[in-house]
Amino acid sequence: MKRPTLADVAAVAQVSPKTVSNVLRGRPLASKATQERVWQAVASVGYRVNRAGRALAGGGTGRIAVVVPNLHQPYYAENAERLILALADRGLTSTLRIAPDAASEREAVFGGTTADADGVIVLPHFINTEVLGGMAPDRPVVQFGSRPTGLLDTVVMGEREGFSAVTRHLLDTGRRRLALVWNATQSGRPEGRRFEGFEEALAEYGLEPDPALMAAGSDWDWRAPGFEAMTGLLASGARFDAVLCINDSVAVGALRALRVGGVRVPDDVALTGFDDTDEAEFTVPPLTTVSPEHEAMVDAAVRMMVDRLGGEAGPPRVRQTGAHLIPRASSGVPR
Amino acid sequence: MKRPTLADVAAVAQVSPKTVSNVLRGRPLASKATQERVWQAVASVGYRVNRAGRALAGGGTGRIAVVVPNLHQPYYAENAERLILALADRGLTSTLRIAPDAASEREAVFGGTTADADGVIVLPHFINTEVLGGMAPDRPVVQFGSRPTGLLDTVVMGEREGFSAVTRHLLDTGRRRLALVWNATQSGRPEGRRFEGFEEALAEYGLEPDPALMAAGSDWDWRAPGFEAMTGLLASGARFDAVLCINDSVAVGALRALRVGGVRVPDDVALTGFDDTDEAEFTVPPLTTVSPEHEAMVDAAVRMMVDRLGGEAGPPRVRQTGAHLIPRASSGVPR
DNA sequence: CTTTCTATTGACAACGCTGAAGTGCGTGCC
DNA sequence: GGCACGCACTTCAGCGTTGTCAATAGAAAG
């Protein structure tokens, strides 16, 4: 009736509970024969570990916290899903935490609200070197995306390569006046690896970014800010024949603004996003975007986590994945 | 250095650990004065309960599992977010589980994979009376959306009212040949409360559903099936002046198919969705949809959960919320 | 001035598991 | 033959919390 415990398994296998525990944890202490017997006993009584007991005794919780700022942005939802499923493949359960502001993000990474997890994978929105303030967490933390701080294991996408690829793509197809819809930054101007990729590609054509063609949405990467920024750019009277958005959601907002403004995509203006979220495939017209190689990123993040849980020491590592262009109709050649 | 325990609080407050526990759980056993003292001690040592200890001792985990089939569909991601945040408001932590198939959904509801939760809120994709097979779970389970089985507490949206409202809206604005893009059903024909709403509204105009104007996507409510179903309908040569989709994602897929087919929305054909997901606001043209009153649904679900956790007994309840039309350009009057 | 309550608090033994520290017993070595 | 050693396992105590039941004190009752 009651859920079976280690002791029940032990009784059946004719060994001590501790031995059962050792076998379950994969410790190479027991003989082959004993291991065999234990596993059979486990199966026969239908044993499943009691995580509370294990956690209390110091054996860890077997749980990884996945921390995102929200789930309504496809970028976060889709990556959270990929991470959770990948962790499950490795036998790790996960618990998702939504940290909508800087304080809760920090809390989630450094303990408080995720005390019941052995490790944390965070898709940060606020974290930066300043926020961390030199603190190092007391358990494995992997940062997924965003700028490395040097304090956490981090997986970064090929932001620079990816963005220079879209930029080149637009230049190659004859666009010359490239506008940017960015998210707000401290400095008030676009910055970061993606922007570097942009400059890099322009330079190859002997061009430079034009400040008059840059629009920043709010700090939050999302559709409405993209819409507003684009609307503002249109109202400014600036002339451009392509718009590069910092990500897909912003592009979806921008697309609508272009439509409202009577601008045809791609005939009058080409439009591109970044991230390869599902929504990009079904916009009208479908959105050209950059794939950050989701599989590779998730794989790298999970692998780093598993290694650290396995006791691997050493300074924070940074793994970089590639990025490739996904050309679609939104950046098609004008008729 | 170490995380403070009940004993530490007890020492400061000059009472036994058990009394501290009682105060923390809100038991009305201790005197006012003692309660006061305990709370101050808690604050002064910065105590936070150790959930593993509590769970082991039988005090519950204070955790609610939110179960969804996936996170890449906005409907699930957005509602999971709302639920998680609403639970947090009530002081309940949550753990999100992805159950992509019938077996894991069942497992999640009946224990196995969510043994570490005091209760479960499930946004089902597979659950039906048959799958449950008369089983009653041994802890509070609230079903969010989908068809009630009579076995679980359930929150349902105003599906019938909502769908009859969109239907009437289309009829009121002069549309007469209404097509349906549905998800696959056992019977192969559209069914369910939404369909009833459709029939009901048609009947008011002396009309009947036309089988030639019905298209079913795959079982999965998602964009690609919507695209395929719509493409098929267009290829069939059927003539229609409006398309009602079972939900927003399907509508997004259908919109693209219409566009590819050279059909103008809303000039040639009006298009509608259901669910009021974020994506509906930013399609081109923006999508007319039905809001299931998210706040009310989430509120009802959380409230039922809290009541059950509080020990409320009785047979499964069903709470129904309303639904209202959100008219947008996709169902505008043709010029 | 006992006796019986009532209100408040405490002692104790779990809960299921794991780290640390053994216990035997057979081997290999000089 | 004596001794150290390694192997295969076990014993023990305790992780932080809670339910059960006992204990204490003071008040009310007789």
From TrEMBL, chains A, B:
SUPFAM superfamilies annotated for this entry?
Answer: lambda repressor-like DNA-binding domains (SSF47413), Periplasmic binding protein-like I (SSF53822)
One GO MF term attached to the UniProt entry: DNA-binding transcription factor activity
Asked if Transcription is a keyword of the record, the answer is yes
Q: SMART domains given for it?
A: HTH_LACI
Q: Which PROSITE patterns match?
A: HTH_LACI_1, HTH_LACI_2
HTH lacI-type domain span: 4-58
**What name appears for this protein in its UniProt entry?**
DNA-binding transcriptional regulator, LacI/PurR family
**Source organism per UniProt:** Glycomyces harbinensis
